[in-house]
Design a protein that fits this description.
The protein has ten helices and 14 strands. With about 325 residues, the chain is α/β, with parallel strands linked by helices. The strands form two sheets. Strands 1, 4, 5, 6, 7, 8, 9, 10, 11, 12, 13 and 14 form a twelve-stranded mixed sheet that branches. Strand 8 and strand 9 form a beta hairpin. It is globular.
């Protein structure tokens, strides 16, 4: 099996594909839910020779089953947010150091060393519940930054403003990670001109505001914070890796993660660059759960391999992919 050092040292598409096939065969044998899913699809594991032939497990299975490919004890369980009455997804993680290495190495790849930055967090929805993988990551980034002003602000917008002004005055590289509605709440109270600030929105109104198209949202946020662009993070409870957008809603994956696009009418078929379909994610850091996830997001891939997120499926379950969900 792939070890952690090899996983995060992937450089080429050939290496990625080889490791993906190896992990697929391991999970097809050792993840009972995935094994049954593949059996229902009548797929012969030995005949899967390339990444495009690998079946992707519907993300909704994380709401109804324990998705595990390891017999090691679970170290932590991450759970999704959801309104009252909704079934939450649960991701049982048997090796949390995989998650830690994934987000640290990805951040350093797209930005710089964590201890170069001050991290400010405006994540009230996430702070007020347990089991958030995002809060786990942000806690660690704040700690590893070592900066005395790194921290959470909840609803304390006055203190956040004063902190931003102080950091700007010192030319301190700063990342403000915020849930979308909280960032909008802040700029309705205050405006700041801080062009060097990295504003990273994590998506979602959490029922607090009307959903907005990305262009309108980012226009408001760039004006309110005085920044040239809005950065974004594409991650979820069911994944141990994140893709990042440094502006314009165009995301890139770290070398151990890849996005494919599936046909919305035939979920077992992939479609080409430029066409809209369902987002499938290969996350090799999910070695001990399932690395091949069919999300409920809609998107498209660009010719350079970057991708855009264009919305979500209307239906709660992905058409044609609800085998075993009972």
């Amino acid at each position: 099996m792939l070890n952690q050092e090899d996983l995060f040292a992937i450089k080429t598409a050939e290496e990625f594909n080889a490791h993906a096939l190896s992990i697929f065969k391991h999970q097809a044998k050792n993840c009972q839910v995935y094994k049954e899913y593949i059996h229902h699809l009548k797929i012969d594991v030995d005949q899967v020779k390339n990444i495009e032939q690998i079946p992707f497990l519907p993300i909704s299975f994380f709401k109804t089953h324990h998705i595990l490919s390891s017999r090691n004890p679970v170290e932590i369980t991450f759970s999704s947010s959801g309104t009252t009455g909704m079934v939450q997804s649960s991701h049982h993680v048997t090796n949390v150091s995989l998650y830690e290495q994934s987000y640290l190495k990805a951040f350093e790849h797209f930005y710089a060393e964590v201890n170069d930055y001050c991290f400010l967090a405006l994540l009230p929805s996430y702070q007020q519940r347990s089991g958030s993988s995002l809060i786990y990551m942000v806690n660690d980034l704040i700690e590893k930054s070592g900066h005395p002003q790194s921290g959470y602000f909840l609803y304390n917008h006055d203190e956040l403003l004063q902190t931003l002004l102080a950091l700007k005055a010192k030319s301190q590289p700063t990342v403000l990670i915020g849930v979308t509605y909280a960032l909008l709440d802040f700029i309705e109270q205050f405006e700041i001109d801080f062009p060097e600030l990295i504003v990273m929105e994590t998506g979602g109104m959490k029922g607090k505001r009307k959903e907005m198209v990305r262009e309108e949202l980012h226009e408001q946020l760039t004006k309110g914070f005085g920044v040239p662009s809005i950065h974004s993070e594409y991650g979820m409870t069911e994944l141990l890796s994140q893709a990042y957008s440094l502006g314009d809603g165009v995301f890139n994956c770290p070398s151990w993660m890849r996005v494919l696009i599936r046909d919305t009418n035939d979920p077992l078929s992939l479609i080409h660059h430029g066409k809209t379909g369902g987002i499938n994610v290969v996350d090799l850091a999910n070695i001990n759960s399932c690395s091949f996830i069919a999300t409920q997001d809609l998107g498209k891939i660009n010719p350079d391999g970057s991708f855009e997120v264009l919305g979500r499926f209307d239906n709660a379950d992905i058409r044609g992919c609800n085998l075993l969900v009972q």
